[in-house]
Amino acid sequence: MAATVAPTRTDAAPRRGLSASARHERRAGLAFISPWIIGFVVFTAWPILYSAYLSLTDYDVVHDPAFVGLDNYRELAADPRARLALWNTLVYTVLQVPAYVLTALVLALLLERAGRAGGFFRTAFFVPKMTPPVAVGVLLLLLFNGSYGVVNQVLGWFGIQGPSWTTDPAWIKPGLVLVSLWSVGAAVVILLAALQEVPTELHDAARVDGAGYWRRTRTVTVPMISGALFFVVVVNTIAAFQMFTEAYTAFFGAGNSTYANDGALFYVIYLFQEGFEELHMGYASALAWLLFVVIMAVTLVQLVVSRRLVYYEAEQR
Fold this sequence. Notes:
This protein is mainly alpha-helical. The chain folds into 2 domains: 23-72; 79-316, MetI-like fold (Orthogonal Bundle), CATH 1.10.3720.10. The protein has helices at residues 20-54, 71-77, 80-112, 118-126, 133-144, 150-157, 169-180, 185-195, 200-208, 213-224, 226-241, 245-251, 267-277, 281-309, and strands spanning 57-58, 66-67. It has a two-stranded antiparallel ribbon with strand order 1-2. Strand 1 and strand 2 form a beta hairpin. It is globular and about 70 Å long.
């Protein structure tokens, strides 16, 4: 008897390509985002890659780049002003980020209890964010001038001798930190939105257990908005490392050269001086890449720490 061979059968259905409508939608999507793609490649990706090349050259804008290898990085490692600028930036960041985040959190907590007046105060807190940074730098000189500044005049009403905010190197960075709180409104709005998403039943349960307002804030509110807090911390840390306009306007603009400038010599200011005033574009590119590495390292540390400190409700489901 001849053996019968059963026909083979494939369990997997044949793979089909995209339908005509799906291909049309994909082409339409690519067409819509193509301006962003082109802009990113031309104005972001290519300059980043080209700056990496320039960091290995001696380039003064006038002449063609001359390849020098790692000489710029060796010079950077031995440059005392680069170390001073980086130190000033680190000190400013350590002072500014906690002050900024804490101020934003306190104002957001107050706004949450403002009731019907909350809309007005949200606008009032956010409007200063729209102030041009150059104007904020001028505001620094008006408010914190050691001789006739408003801040020292107010301190004098209480018998306190105000410091020389704009001339004493020890007080320049605290003064800049205080001025930076002028634009805290954006963080306030972000944290207020997070506060309004905290489930009310959690506060009710804590209240039943006898927890007061401050204990509920510490054990319920802050953990529940830790994701928003982490976002504000990361974004503001990156911004603090790039501090430039306010300090440059107040201490370096219009040819200003006082002995206190070293206290306000932030890293991006030194990078700007080397690149656009001295035309050391190759060296400035090396400075920029060092700043990129520092910011990336700090951000990675923050991401690692956030795994233990930041609570995301979606991850608990």
